[in-house]
Specification:
By secondary structure, this protein is α/β, with parallel strands linked by helices. It has one domain: P-loop containing nucleotide triphosphate hydrolases (Rossmann fold), CATH 3.40.50.300. Helices cover about 55% and strands about 15% of the residues. It contains eight helices and five strands. A five-stranded parallel sheet has the order 2-3-1-4-5, with helices on both faces. Helix 2 (about 45-60) runs antiparallel to helix 3 (about 65-90). The longest helix is centred in the middle third of the chain and has 25 residues, at about 65-90. The two termini are about 20 Å apart. The structure holds adenosine-5'-triphosphate and magnesium ion. Adenosine-5'-triphosphate binds near residues 16 and 190.
């Protein structure tokens, strides 16, 4: 069970929207206040997660959307058990770069896997560990992909235009369904402006 003081924040959005940038900025800002915080990411964050990340993002083998959903959730289960749950139990603020909503958006809305299947597998892995706040950095597909041009393309970046549009629409739909949990930000704005909007919300949720 999560302790009362714990705070779990996730960053979501499509390719190159700025999740890792903003997760890092937020982590630094919280840490500067001497509040214990932890920054982690999906897929990855554990030894198993790193192996799975390599498999799902960079290998050239065929991975069916259902198998993909299970691989992401295997990484997630390990991350929750080893890293996220123990930190939340200690009252550490946990920031995670992607979480269950990415699987819903990518494998569900992007690849078209039955949403009830995605939901079932996600909740099996998450074991009730639900974010207190999820930041959606929303950018048009072309802007996000353009930002990532310099780095080595992975399995997802190279998906079709329709796939990425589905992912973006999927995230927006998730946010609309749970407006209290989500903070939706126009991520075409500059990094400092976005960080300021996030801080406005997060500073109210911090312990003490
Ligand atoms: N608000 C912004 N405006 C312009 N460029 C940005 C902005 N935020 C981040 N970037 C740049 O865009 C690129 C992608 O950013 P970042 O890696 O944070 O995105 P991401 O959402 O984590 O991407 P990925 O989907 O690959 O995980 C980086 O080069 C980063 O410096
Ligand atoms: Mg990233």
């Amino acid at each position: 069970m999560k302790s009362k003081m714990s705070l779990f924040i996730t960053f979501e959005g499509g390719e190159g929207c700025g999740k890792s940038t903003q997760a890092r900025l937020l982590y630094r800002r919280i840490t500067k206040l001497a509040i214990p915080a932890l920054l982690t990411y999906e897929p990855g964050g554990t030894d198993l997660g790193k192996r799975i990340k390599h498999l799902v993002k960079y290998s050239r083998i065929t991975i069916d959307p259902l198998a993909e959903t299970m691989l992401f959730n295997a990484s997630r289960a390990q991350l929750i058990e080893d890293i996220i749950k123990p930190a939340l139990e200690k009252g550490t603020v946990v920031i995670c770069d992607r979480y269950t909503d990415s699987t819903t958006a990518y494998q569900g809305h992007g690849h078209g896997l039955d949403l009830s299947i995605v939901k079932t597998v996600n909740s099996m892995a998450a074991q009730g560990v639900v974010p207190d706040l999820t930041v959606l950095l929303d950018v048009p597909v072309e802007i996000g992909l353009e930002r990532k041009k310099k780095i080595k393309p992975d399995r997802f970046q190279t998906q079709s235009w329709d796939f990425h549009k589905g992912v973006r629409a999927g995230f927006l739909k998730l946010a609309k369904a749970e407006p209290k949990r989500w903070l939706v930000i126009d991520a075409t704005q500059n990094q400092e402006t976005i960080a300021g909007i996030i801080w406005q919300r997060v500073s109210k949720l911090l312990p003490g």
